[in-house]
Amino acid sequence: MFSQHRRRRAHGLCMPSSFYFSRLVDRSLLSKCPTLARIVHAQLVKVGLIDNTFWGNRCLQLYFKSSSVIDALQLFEAIPEKNNISWNVCLKGLLKNDYLNHALYLFEEMPERDAVSWNTMISGFASCGYPRNAMRTFLDMQRYVIRPTEFTFSTLATLVTCLRHGEQIHGNVICSGGSLSSPVVWNSLMDMYRRLGVFDYALSVFLTMEGRDVISWNSLILCCSDSGNKEVALDQFRVMREMGYQPDEYTFSTVVSICSDLQDLCKGEQALALCIKMGSLSNAVVSGAAIDMFSKCNRLEYAVKLFRQLEKWDSVLCNSLIASYSWHGFGEEALKLFILAMRQRVQPDKFTFSSVLSSLNVVMVDHGAQVHSLAVKLGFDLDTPVATSLMEMYFKTGLVDSAMRVFVTTDEKDLLFWNTVIMGLARNSRADESLAIFRQLLIHRGLKPDKVTLMGVLVACCYANFVNQGIQIFSSMKKVHGVDPENEHYACIVDLLCRVGMINEANDIAEKMPFEPSSHIWEPILYASIDIGDTRLAERVAERMLESEPKSSFPYLVLIKLYEMTWRWENSVRIRYALDKQKLKCAQGSSKIGIKHSVYCFEANQLQIHGGHDTWATLELLSWDSDDQRSAEQFV
Question: Where does the record place its PPR repeats (predicted)?
Answer without folding.
Answer: 114-148, 213-247, 314-348, 414-449
